């Protein structure tokens, strides 16, 4: 019998000091989150939602918040599945020699929760609902695909960093007409040993068949967000 292993991936980032944030009560919205208010006020504020990987938490991704454009409202959400102290996920997953095996029910529940979370944020935060972006690392990137491709009216664009597109969502992906305005950034390390580089290539091919032309970047790196990757996604956000 093939032996399976269950692992959690936590990626660290450079600590950013003097970060202005608030912790929002969980009874106000459907997910717990941290927020960086826009440093530059404008009439219509774009929203960037950061989604962490399995075994991580909202503080991990939030450490990058001050790197993003000053006019954005930046929110970092916590996954609803508790794995341990300060360790959360969007769904449980087993990493096996044949590839990841996910808890499909949890993944679908989190997809719906994130869609509701975007709607909930309108009650507590001031932003333009036509300018919502998701930026996810690893499992957070998976959820970015799942939300955007099934509910493209909820988001303007997604940035997927070292993620993959779940085959489970393909039957419920929106029509090509509804996807045509979706903006997509994909970045992946060619030496990724957790979610292999081929997942990114497969996603690019699938999206192109759906009429989406993603901006795709590859790096000589593993399963991580490196400074070059962060620079490229910040530049992409600035363009849109």
Automatic annotation (TrEMBL):
Record carries keyword Hydrolase: yes
Xref: Gene3D superfamilies: alpha/beta hydrolase (3.40.50.1820)
Record's keyword terms, sorted: Hydrolase
Record domain Phospholipase/carboxylesterase/thioesterase: where: 41-239
GO molecular function: hydrolase activity
Family from the record: Belongs to the AB hydrolase superfamily. AB hydrolase 2 family.
Identification of the protein by name: Esterase
Organism in which the protein naturally occurs: Flavobacterium silvaticum
């Amino acid at each position: 019998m093939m032996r399976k292993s269950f692992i959690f991936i936590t990626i660290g980032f450079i600590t950013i000091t003097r970060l202005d944030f608030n912790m929002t009560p969980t009874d106000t919205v459907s997910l717990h989150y941290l927020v960086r208010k826009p440093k530059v006020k404008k009439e219509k504020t774009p929203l960037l939602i950061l989604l962490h990987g399995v075994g991580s938490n909202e503080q991990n991704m939030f450490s990058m918040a001050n790197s993003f454009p000053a006019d954005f409202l930046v929110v970092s959400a916590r996954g609803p599945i508790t794995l341990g102290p300060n360790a959360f996920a969007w769904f449980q997953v087993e990493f096996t020699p044949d590839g990841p095996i996910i808890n499909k029910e949890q993944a679908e529940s989190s997809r719906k929760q994130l869609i509701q979370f975007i709607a909930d944020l309108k009650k507590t935060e001031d932003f333009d609902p036509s300018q919502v972006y998701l930026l996810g690392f690893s499992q957070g990137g998976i959820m970015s695909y799942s939300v955007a491709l099934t509910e493209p009216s909820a988001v303007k664009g997604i940035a997927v960093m070292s993620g993959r597109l779940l085959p489970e969502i393909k039957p419920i992906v929106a029509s090509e007409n509804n996807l045509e305005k979706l903006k997509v950034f994909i970045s992946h390390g060619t030496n990724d040993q957790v979610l292999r580089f081929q997942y990114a290539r497969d996603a690019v091919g699938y999206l192109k068949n759906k009429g989406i032309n993603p901006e795709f970047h590859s790096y000589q790196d593993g399963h991580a967000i490196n400074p070059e990757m962060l620079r490229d996604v910040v530049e992409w956000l600035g363009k849109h």
